[in-house]
Amino acid sequence: MNQQDQTLQEIRGAFRLYCGGEQAEGRRLLQEIWDRLGADGDVFHRCVAAHYLADVQVDPQDELKWDLTALEVADSLDSERAGTYPSAAAVRAFYPSLHLNLADDYRRLADFDNARRHADRGTELSGSLGLDGYGQSVRAGLVRVDSQIGERDSGPSVVFDFD
After folding, report:
1. Is the pLDDT of residue 128 over 90?
2. Could you give the residue ranges of the DSSP H alpha helices within the chain?
3. Which sequence spans correspond to the domains of the chain?
């Protein structure tokens, strides 16, 4: 297993711990991975780690902060860098999910204008998704959050498990 695969396995393993009832340990491991990756770490790894760190937050404002961090990390891969970055396609394919999570964050915080903006952007980018389970889940999430925004529903999040 190469370093790329090993790091992704570690990130996903930490998130599985969290989802499996070991919240404190899963959160701790995700934070440890994030810290180890550092500001100069692999863009895709940092994006995925921040994405999952958002999902393990209790406070919606903290979740929003991590989801914005994940988007900022993805956006750091400008067109010049993307031409030489091996995981550029993976980062691009992650955008619909990043916008879905931001739409849901803003919706739960009753900021429906920002929620709409991110839901629309996620939908615009969803053409890059495959027809596999992940792509179908993200598309279904976008439809669901779009409906909740239209109803001005700021209720609890629907769990999005794309792992």
Report:
1. no
2. 3-19, 23-37, 43-55, 60-75, 79-82, 88-108, 112-125, 133-150
3. 3-150
